[in-house]
Amino acid sequence: MRTQSTIQVREATPQEDSLVAKHSCNLWRDIGVPDDAIDPNWLEITLQFMEQARRDLFYKAFVAEVDGSVVGSVSCQLYSGLYPNVLMPHYRKYGYIWGVYVEPAYRRQGIAKQLTSTTVNYLKAVGCTQVILNASPLGKPVYEQLGFSSSNAMHLDL
C-alpha cells in the first residue's frame, strides 16, 4: 500500500535554474509544440531571460518536492508589458506567472495549484494588483479554481 507523500513547495535556488528551464521547455512539448519549432539554444535563452528578469523584474521560481525530489516548478515576475504603461502602480501593477509544470507521474495531486498559489502570494507581496497567466487546456480548470477568470485577450493565428 502506497502512503501519501508530502508535497513541499519552496523557492528555487539559482542552482536549480536549469531544471526550471527544462520544465518550461517540457511544457511547450506537452502542449504540442514540435521539437523542430523549439530553438536548439532553448536552455541558454531561458537562463539568460531568467537572469535578466531576476535583476529587473522581481523574478522568482518555486519548486515542488515530493520525497526530496523536485517534481514541478513555476516562474513569476513583474509583467514588463507590450505597450507603454501609463497607469499608476496602485491602480494596475501586473504580475506574470509562466512555466507551471508538474511531471506527468505527479499530476492531479494539487501540485500545480500549490505552485500557482505560492506565486500569487509572492506577486501580491511585491505589490502586484493583478496576475496574468496563459493557461493550457489542462491548466485552465486549476486556475479557475484559484479565482482566475478568462480575460478579454484575443488572438488570431496567421
Automatic annotation (TrEMBL):
Organism annotation: Brasilonema octagenarum UFV-OR1
Pfam families cross-referenced by the UniProt entry: Acetyltransf_1
Top-level taxon of origin: Bacteria
UniProt protein name: GNAT family N-acetyltransferase
Gene3D superfamilies found in the cross-reference section: 3.40.630.30
Keyword annotations from UniProtKB, A to Z: Acyltransferase, Transferase
Record bears the keyword Cell wall biogenesis/degradation: no
Segments forming domain N-acetyltransferase: 7-158
Alphabetized InterPro entries for the sequence: Acyl_CoA_acyltransferase (IPR016181), Bact_Acetyltransf (IPR050832), GNAT_dom (IPR000182)
PROSITE patterns noted in UniProt: GNAT
